[in-house]
TrEMBL record:
<feature type="domain" description="FAS1">
    <location>
        <begin position="19"/>
        <end position="166"/>
    </location>
</feature>
<keyword id="KW-0677">Repeat</keyword>
<dbReference type="GO" id="GO:0098552">
    <property type="term" value="C:side of membrane"/>
</dbReference>
<keyword id="KW-0336">GPI-anchor</keyword>
<dbReference type="Pfam" id="PF02469">
    <property type="entry name" value="Fasciclin"/>
</dbReference>
<feature type="region of interest" description="Disordered">
    <location>
        <begin position="329"/>
        <end position="389"/>
    </location>
</feature>
<dbReference type="InterPro" id="IPR000782">
    <property type="entry name" value="FAS1_domain"/>
</dbReference>
<feature type="compositionally biased region" description="Low complexity">
    <location>
        <begin position="363"/>
        <end position="385"/>
    </location>
</feature>
<dbReference type="GO" id="GO:0005886">
    <property type="term" value="C:plasma membrane"/>
</dbReference>
<keyword id="KW-0732">Signal</keyword>
<protein>
    <recommendedName>
        <fullName>FAS1 domain-containing protein</fullName>
    </recommendedName>
</protein>
<comment type="function">
    <text>May be a cell surface adhesion protein.</text>
</comment>
<feature type="signal peptide">
    <location>
        <begin position="1"/>
        <end position="19"/>
    </location>
</feature>
<dbReference type="InterPro" id="IPR033254">
    <property type="entry name" value="Plant_FLA"/>
</dbReference>
<keyword id="KW-0654">Proteoglycan</keyword>
<keyword id="KW-0449">Lipoprotein</keyword>
<feature type="compositionally biased region" description="Low complexity">
    <location>
        <begin position="335"/>
        <end position="352"/>
    </location>
</feature>
Length: 416
């Protein structure tokens, strides 16, 4: 058994070394934050991490934002896909290309939207040690050039920075898939008619539809959520407060379930501004996702739509932002039995009358239950923060487990 130990060591180390995480690689340099963020929004980060051999042509914020800011998320995803090569190219290989030029297939070619060589990239070793990049489509120019190597794990993943986006014919002309989506109808059909009515009557449906092209996630409370105790009486809120409350149920970002499960940061909403954070946090328990506001929490009940760049979920509770309800929610709506409001309080009022000797008792009882709600939300936030930890498993953790298992095996083999 002992003669197998070196082989097992090499096998385990090779398996753990092959793991890579593009999000972590790019997070080390803030110059790539926009590129990194869009890889997550489009779901391409997951595609990159599951492939054994890959090269990512990354752009800095200035070069990437100039294009991304002008187009919907579906178009940005196609553009990003053209910058993900299904082969390994590091600094050395780029300068040792056979005959000085080669074509590399990209992730865009696998989408079925690319005709001919539109989904491939031309890589050419130019004179003077420079390397040029461009579309492989006939007549395309080498408008981008190699700047530096960011990270390389031979022959697993290579991340290299290039000077400008690679443009293929027609890649920026794709129509946004959300253009024909009727958001109101989808929400109503999912049992969220009250919420659908509110966003329509307050003019927010136009905002949602316009934002959807760039990326939008909606958390729509179901109809039962608006009937629950503690829900604010919207008639007692100002118009501005109602709008902020509704905006708080949407984020200007495409967040599929996978992204919600792995996010550790707070999620900004459409209500977020300089006057208040209006953000959300997410906790994970198995397949269950819970949104936390600091005042209350709500489970994501169902996925109504998940199609880049738009996600719509139904939630069990109305989300109450701290900025509007930090102390306590607005007075709840009147009881359901409107025809009999007077009999309910009368027994409470008459009870102390036969006992004139004890008037102080009711005065001391009334505040006892009042502050009980405040600590509960704080405790809930504290517990939810811990749930986000450990969602993201990295290669270092896998290596630790592998070495521990190997150590146990060595001890066992020694005694045998």
């Amino acid at each position: 058994m002992a003669h197998l130990l070196p082989f097992l060591v090499l096998t385990l180390l090779a398996a753990t070394a092959s793991a890579h995480n593009i999000t972590d690689i790019l997070a080390a340099n803030p110059d790539y934050s926009d590129f990194n963020d869009f890889l997550s929004q489009t779901g391409l980060a997951g595609d990159i991490n599951t492939r054994q051999t890959i090269t990512v042509l990354v752009l800095n914020n200035a070069a990437f934002s100039a294009v991304a800011a002008k187009h919907p998320l579906s178009v940005v995803k196609n553009l990003l896909s053209l910058h993900i090569l299904l082969d390994y190219f590091d600094n050395t290989k780029l300068h040792q290309i056979t005959n000085g030029t080669t074509l590399s297939t990209t992730l865009y070619q696998t989408t079925g939207n690319a005709n001919g060589n539109v989904g491939s990239v031309n890589i050419t070793d130019l004179k003077g040690g420079k390397v040029g990049f461009g579309s492989a489509a006939p007549g395309s120019k080498l408008d981008s050039s190699y700047i530096k190597s960011v990270k390389s794990i031979p022959y697993n993943i290579s991340v290299i920075e290039i000077s400008a986006p690679i443009m293929a014919p027609g890649i920026l002309a794709a129509p946004p898939p959300s253009a024909d989506v009727n958001i109101t109808a989808l929400i109503e059909k999912a049992g969220c008619k009250t919420f659908a009515s509110l966003i329509s009557s307050n003019g927010l449906i136009k905002t949602f539809q316009a934002t959807a092209d760039k990326g939008l996630t909606i958390f729509a409370p179901n109809d039962e959520a608006f009937k629950a105790k503690g829900v604010p009486d919207l008639s007692k809120l100002t118009n501005a407060e109602v709008v902020s409350l509704l905006q708080y149920h949407a984020a200007a970002k495409y967040l599929p379930v996978g992204s919600l499960k792995t996010t550790k940061d707070s999620i900004n909403t459409l209500a977020s501004n300089g006057a208040g954070k209006f953000d959300l946090t997410v906790s994970v328990a198995g397949d269950s996702l819970t949104l936390h506001t600091g005042v209350d929490s709500s489970r994501i009940a169902d996925t109504i739509l998940d199609s880049s760049p738009l996600s719509i979920y139904s939630v069990d509770s109305v989300l109450l932002p701290q900025e509007l309800f930090a102390k306590s929610p607005s007075p709840a709506p009147a009881p359901e039995s409107v025809s009999s409001p007077t009999p309910a309080p009368s027994p409470v009022a008459e009870a102390p009358s036969p006992f004139p000797a004890s008037p102080p008792a009711p005065a001391g009882e009334s505040p006892a239950g009042a502050p009980a709600e405040a600590p509960s939300s704080e405790a809930e936030r504290s517990s939810s923060a811990g749930k986000n930890d450990g969602v993201h498993v990295k290669a270092s953790a896998a290596l630790t487990v592998a070495v521990s298992a190997l150590s146990a095996f060595v001890i066992s083999a020694t005694f045998m």
